[in-house]
Amino acid sequence: MLVSERIGQFFVEGDTGRDRLEYTEYGAGDSWVVLVHGQLMPRRMHAPLARRLAAEGLHVVTIDLLGHGRSDRPADPLVYSVTAFAEQVVALLDHLGAAQAVVGGTSIGANIALETAVLAPERVRGLICEMPVLDNAVEAGILTFAPLLMAARFLPVTVTAVRRLTRPVPRGIVPFWAGIVLDTLDQRADSLAAVVHGLFFGRMAPPSKDRRRIQVPALVVGHPADPVHPAADAAMLAGELPQATFVKARSILEWRVAPERLDRAAVGFALGCWRSTGRTTGRRRRTGS
After folding, report:
1. Number of folded domains that form the chain
2. 49, 126, 130, 251: which one has the fewest Cβ atoms less than 10 Å from its Cβ?
3. What region holds the AB hydrolase-1 domain (predicted)?
């Protein structure tokens, strides 16, 4: 089933000025779902899931958070944090006129979904958290991102060289996920260092005591054999959230290369959140950009 797709933008005000964020809408209606990408990845990574959800009647929005994809990329690490990203999700809902949404994310996007539920619980209808990055991921996260931060900060020519090699490759001639990898490698050294620094030394996720207070339904997906996103973190989160359903992926690639089973789980969960009664409707006045 074909669904409509529309690209939009809005602006957020910060201490360093006015920044532009870009998003894509799939489908229509008042049953909103917002999908948040992983660290350094573009919103396009969620296009297949967004289309599947929209084909079932949901109104799906994917966003490039600040420092990612086609949104602005300031070089100030102080503008990057999970809390700041959650504020951008709320600002997106305000811009769209959406009173509530199911908020989902992958990796750091899952953490941002959790932070949104803590920051603005009245705006979150449900959560989809794929491979959250919590307590058990600390060591692997340091090993993965510390060298990236050092290279971007002290050897920026390496980041620039990768960008020059990958940017000319036409995305239309390579497989979808190869294109996502190419987009992820398309970084500027100054903004890359700022994003990693801001997340590395800031708040990565709500603490356990705050996670336990989240009352909305949650679908938590964990991956085996993934040290950066250990299944133990996903299982721990599912145990903390009062209304969580835990789904174990067959591999770290299942939702990328054989998505049908997990797509069905996400569709059923999101539709169930919007079929529940006693919560606010999904539409409110759209504000200007």
Report:
1. 1
2. 251
3. 32-137
Q: HSE (CB half, 13 Å, CA atoms) of 178?
A: 8
CB atoms within 10 A of CB 20: 14
The half-sphere exposure of 30 on its side-chain side, counting CA atoms within 13 A, is: 11
Does some domain include residue 169?
no
Residue 249 domain boundaries: 5-135+206-275
Residue 196 counted as domain residue: no
Q: Tell me the pTM.
A: 0.94
Kindly state whether residue 57 falls inside one of the protein's structural domains. yes
Provide the residue type at 64 as one letter. D
CATH number of the domain that residue 259 is part of: 3.40.50.1820
